[in-house]
């Protein structure tokens, strides 16, 4: 099984069985899943995907 990437457009993380699923897409964190509407600048995994 190949690794799937987080559905957040700027995120470089891959997702696994622990992924957060929202609207049929998989995200590596809650911040990515909500589109960084909480003001976060990253996912907590070293990315700056919320900027």
TrEMBL record:
GO terms for molecular function: metal ion binding. It comes from the Bacteria. InterPro entries: Metalthion_dom_sf (IPR017854), Metalthion_fam14_prok (IPR000518). Gene3D superfamilies: 2.30.170.10. Keywords: Metal-binding, Metal-thiolate cluster. The keyword Metal-binding applies. Pfam families: Metallothio_Pro. This is Metallothionein.
């Amino acid at each position: 099984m190949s690794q799937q990437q987080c559905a957040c457009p700027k995120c470089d993380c891959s997702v696994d069985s622990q992924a957060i699923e929202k609207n049929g897409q998989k995200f590596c964190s809650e911040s990515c899943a909500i589109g960084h509407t909480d003001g976060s600048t990253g996912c907590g995994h070293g990315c700056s995907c919320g900027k």
